[in-house]
Each structure stands twice: as structure tokens, then as C-alpha cells.
Amino acid sequence: MEDKELLRVMQQNPEHGISLVMKQYAALCYYIVKQKLSDFSQEEVEECVSDVFLAFYHQYTAIDLERGSIKGFLSVLSRRKAIDRWRRLAGKETLPLQEAITTSDSLEQQEERKILLDAVLALGDPDAKIVILKYYFGYPTKKIAEIFGLKENTVDQKVRRSLAKVKAILEGGDCHEV
Fold this sequence. Notes:
Rna Polymerase Sigma Factor, Chain: A, 8 helices, Arc Repressor Mutant, subunit A, mainly alpha, elongated, 2 domains
């Protein structure tokens, strides 16, 4: 079914419209969420997919088909919901790297982000990329290991050492091998 038709059905009969959207895009959303939450239970994945469609139900009026598609909108929603759930489940806060700076951010917060990002980037490749994937994008160790062709324990060890190096850089100390 075409996007325009789906949105028309959503406006006329939201319950029927959301069931059509789910039928057409559930597999895509499930795939995206499963990639991010591969370390967690099937139940968590399914709950996250449900959250995606609930968010879509509340936000579908914001879709501008001239700028994007329902597929794109759902893909972004799926990714964001999965990352948020991963962060909550993992009990980890991410490093505030280059997030969008809002007017409510103080100059001090902006400067702290820049200093932190510079310290992470000073690690060089592949360590900087591994830290960014792990803490900014929320990738699980298993996925990072696949990307770089490393063992999971090697990735964990690189992360541990990299964080120690970042700490040393931020404290103004030398960045020797830890």
C-alpha cells in the first residue's frame, strides 16, 4: 500500500490504519530493533517494537511525504527506541559526545563535550571508533567485535584501556599504555 493511502487510512480510522502499517512494516522495525538489542531477551525486543508503533500512532501526523517516507520515519523511530531501551537495560549512561547543542546547553556544557570528544578522538583508530560505537551509538560488544573482526573480550579490553587513556588525558596526565 502506498504511503499516501496509509496516511489517509490513519486519519480516517487510526486503529485500522495502524494495523495496516504494522502489517507492512513490522518486519523492518523488528530487524532494526533486534540488531540493537541482540544482547537482550526476545521479550525486550518485542516490547520495543510495540513502543515504536505506539510512538508512530501518536506522531504520524508529523510525517511529511515530500521530505521522507513512512518506512524512513519508522526506521528512525525503531533505531532511537532501541538505543534508548539498550541504554536503560544496560544501565549505562552514554558519553555526551557531539549531541545536538540546544539553546539550554550552557557554554560550560558545550566546552565539556568538545573536550571529551577531543580526548576520545586522540585515541586514534580503531580505539576512538570502538569507544564511540560503544558509548555514543550504544552498540553491544558482540556487534563491535563483528565490525572490527575482533574477539569480544578483545573489544572489552580495548574499551577498558581506552577509557583509562581518556581519563588520563582529561586529568592532564600522560597517555601511556595502561
